[in-house]
Amino acid sequence: MEHLYVSVHILDASYRMDRPYTYFLPPELRERVKKGSLLVVPFGAGNKQVSAVATEFSEACEFPRVKPVSQILDYPFDLPETFVELCKFMKERFLCSIGQAFRTILPPGINLSTEVYYVPTGAEAPEALSGGCQLLYRAVCTAGEASERKLLSDYGEEAERALRLLCSMGLLSKRSRVRKQLNEKNLTMLRLCGSAEEILSLLESDSALTEKQKVLVELLTHYPYATMREVAEIGGISPSVVSALVRKGVVRREEVRVERDFLSSQTPVEPPPPTVLSEEQTEAVNTLRSLADRPEPQAALLYGVTGSGKTKVIIETVKHVLSKGQTAILLLPEIGLTAQAANTYRSVFGDQLAIIHSMLSVGERLDAFRAMREGRIKVVLGTRSAVFSPFDNLGLIVIDEEQESTYKSELSPKYHARDVARFLCAKSGGLLLLASATPSVESYYKAQNGVYTLVKLTKRYGNATLPEVRIEDLRGDESAFPDKLIGARLHEELGRTLQRERQAILFVNRRGYQSHLSCSSCGKVYTCPHCSVSLTHHAYEGQKKSDGWLSCHYCGYVRPLPRVCEDCGSKHIGYFGFGTQKLQEELTERLPTARSIRMDADTTTEKSSHDRILDTFGKREADILFGTQMVSKGLDFPGVDLVGVISVDSSLYQNDFRAGERTFSLLTQLVGRAGRSGEKGLAVLQTYNPDNEILQLAATQDYEAFYESEILLRRSVVFPPFCSMLVFGVSAVEEQDCASFARSFDSLLAQLHAEEYADVKLQRFGPYPGTVYRVGGRYRQKIIIKYSDSARARAFFAAGYELGLSKCPRDVRLEADANPAVI
Question: What's the CA gap between 635 and 638, in Å, rounded?
């Protein structure tokens, strides 16, 4: 039976307006539209043409008058119908609109935006038309049509009023459309028309063709399919020569789509050596294969010490899934890890592998998406957004280093990749595999209680042993005082490592040169004018630190370094704290023969910059790799014997209940970078708090002891995994507006809970000022709620959020974040 009506969600609808809207399906579209199809529909009283997604179908409609669908945006690939259900899941779990979820899932490069434009009506313009209106009217008449965006850009804000006036006078008509546009790469190819006899007679003729035209015809007889660039380079042929032959019907132009492949520019990789698994690895692979073979969805936690060979186990599991005709998604937390892992997985899966991360161009990601839908790609390796890879026959999703906070999106929809992966595996009957040497407390708790199957690797692969760890007490170490970063022990071990022609990795927890500046005379601290944080000092490469600049790492504000205090005029401005650039300067001064390379957000802004840095270090062209968290996890370099942590103290005392867990994970991962080739490794952890329990447990690499301590604490104060948490965030330009609405919204939540959702058990805290009170010129407050997850609790939050948005003043923003990475 043909579907007569379709329910759609408008992609640009706000959360409050996000609901199904019913439209009539014209007969010519009924066989082409399915769940997940992108449509253009008239919306609102003005029938503005907007993009929408089809979600349901019906044969009858309760409304007497229904507008018809305008068109289908028929792009050359479709989406799995599962993704429509995924969008509904994301709306319920993450308090976003269906449109926000759908835009997150779709590949970039697809146009879904409404274009508003004006056309002349043909009516005669009065002579008394004002100067501004006359100018705009002539511009539209000359062009035939003109977009609203271009007119406002060219003629300023006053053009908006003039356009309304011209429309009210009947001189212009305001229209809208959604144009089908796709970011594709095309090449213009040339080929000859006609038979071989006709071509031969053209070449023998003295008058039919010019000499240059004959050169092109003869060239195309030898190269029947050539690009414009090729004929220009080989034969010196200009575009005008080609155009003349096209007009004569001798040559035909053809547009051919070219697939962009990020991997094609990478260094070729050698085939992998034959896989030799240890007894532990073999047992782990067998367990995971049996889970993957079950018809119902499964979840497992692969917990293995650093260097235990988890990647080998993952690869063998992926091979098994592919052998059954299924597909696999492999997630990594950082782009830096993707760079090194890509070579490992390419050597095994070759052309079946695609890479997805934010440093790819829009076109590269779009082409990878298309290749997945066409079945040419079977395995995807990437960061968080790769979880939306559009596979139909999904058999496995792996989340490596699953404890990392980067799997949680900070932008709406504020989804966690683990939640999305769990939903997709439940729908496909696939295996969700979490892997880590330091699993999140929540995941290990589920594994201990049978929700996940626990698979353990307790030994390093081969003959490798865990590195020795030395906690270096910097109290009283004169070599690290007052402004040196490398203590006596670490300096000594670096020297020994260089003498043995081995390598080292150093970690420092912030980029830049120094963390803040202040006047020694009046105490003024240089802070961001838009955020409640100090500005970080950055220095230009190879120049004096006094030639640098100050930057805000929250909003991007930049200003020159002050020469004198702007409050008191004093020249005594002090530089405090440290960052990667200061460490770089110290390495150059104290270890002048060492070749060091820096890896942080400032050195990895260009495409493939992660690959180049890691390739340089992997080829032993650098002795010391140093940087921020990019160097802390997942890297496998056999030449590294030494790991140094410049200071562990700042991460120990962050204002968040996961601070201890993050510090333990960070240190364990860092220590695990050393001694992976059989050589005995060493890790030096510099601190002013050597007796800290977290530090001691990290030094012994005893995750299970840490877990037992942490789970007791979480249970006693009721933190995850013993509850779920949601944070409502309020922000405003004016401090009073922010505080006032936060209090009134808190009262609204309390009233709604008491009157309609009293059965939902929860604890509400706040409102409190945000951890960073002001960011980007907006003050921030937060309301924290602990609750037990259920459909009723989620319904309460959805109702409360919608109610809050309806009461929210224009200059105030309200956001919701379920189970945030940082409270």
Answer: 10
**DSSP of 19-85:** S-EEEE--GGGTTT--TT-EEEEEETTTTEEEEEEEEEEES--SSS--PBP-EE---SS---THHHH
Mean pLDDT over residues 167-187, rounded?
Answer: 81
**Residue 277 identity (one-letter amino acid):** L
Contacts of 245 (CB under 8 A, 6+ apart): 209, 213, 216, 217, 251
Residue 316's CB: how many other CB atoms inside 10 A?
19
- SS3 label, residue 115: strand
Of the candidates 781, 765, 762, 784, the residue with the CA atom closest to the CA atom of residue 773: 781
The answer for residues whose C-beta is within 8 angstroms of residue 428's C-beta and 6 or more apart is 82, 297, 393, 394, 395
What radius of gyration do the chain's Cα atoms show?
A: 31
DSSP string covering 536-568: EEE--TTS-GGG-EEE-TTT--EEEPPSS-TTT
Q: What is the DSSP string of 670-720?
A: HHTTSS-SSSPPEEEEEES-TT-HHHHHHHHT-HHHHHHHHHHHHHHHT-T
DSSP state at residue 362: H
pLDDT digits 0-9 by tens, 194-250? 665 666 666 666 566 787 888 888 788 777 778 887 778 777 888 888 888 888 788
Buried b (16+ CB within 10 A) or exposed e, 533-565: bbbbbbbeeeeebeebbbbbbebebeeebeeeb
Three-class HEC string of 747-786: HHHHHHHHHHCCCCCEEEEEEEEEEEEEECCEEEEEEEEE
How far is Cα 438 from Cα 669, in angstroms, rounded to an integer?
8
Q: At what angle do helices 228-235 and 211-222 cross, to 10 degrees?
A: 120
Secondary structure of residue 299 in the 3-state scheme: strand
Measured CA angle at 401 (ends 399, 403), to 5 deg:
95
The string over 778-793, giving b where at least 16 C-beta atoms fall within 10 Å of a residue's C-beta and e elsewhere, is bbbbbbbbbbeeeeeb
**Burial level of 643, CB count in 10 A (0-12/13-18/19+)?**
buried
Separation of alpha carbons 701 and 669, rounded Å: 9
Whole-angstrom CA distances from 211 to 207, 218, 248 are: 10, 11, 15
Cα distance between residue 378 and residue 325, in whole Å? 9
Q: For residue 283, what are its two tokens?
A: 């047992």
CA 322 to chain centre: 26
- Beta strand 115-120 pairing with 146-147: antiparallel
Number of Cβ atoms within 10 Å of the Cβ of 28: 8
pLDDT tens-digit readout, 247-274? 878 888 877 766 656 554 455 566 777 7
Rounded Cα gap, residues 277 and 289, in angstroms: 15
Cis bond before residue 413 (omega within 30° of 0): yes
- Predicted pLDDT at 265: 45
In total, the chain counts a number of residues equal to: 823
Residue burial 330-351, b: 16+ Cβ < 10 Å; e: rest: bbbbbbbbbbbbbbbbbbbbee
Q: Which residues are CB-neighbours of 196 under 8 A, at least 6 positions away? A: none
Q: b/e for 100-121, b at 16 or more Cβ within 10 A?
A: bbbbbbbbebbebebeebbebe
For the purposes of burial, counting CB atoms within 10 Å of the CB of 731, is it exposed (0-12), middle (13-18) or buried (19 or more)?
buried
pLDDT value, residue 513: 74
Nearest C-alpha neighbor of 212 from the set 243, 186, 174, 185: 243
Number of Cβ within a 10 Å radius of residue 697: 22
In the beta sheet, which residues pair with residue 86?
none
- Name the β-bridge partners of 186: 257
Give residue-wise pLDDT tens across range 750-783.
Answer: 999 999 999 999 999 989 999 899 999 999 999 9
Q: How far is Cα 592 from Cα 736, in angstroms, rounded to an integer? A: 55
- CA–CA separation, 133 and 142 (whole Å): 14
What is each CA distance from 764 to 519, 646, 735, 796, 800, in whole angstroms? Answer: 42, 39, 22, 13, 13
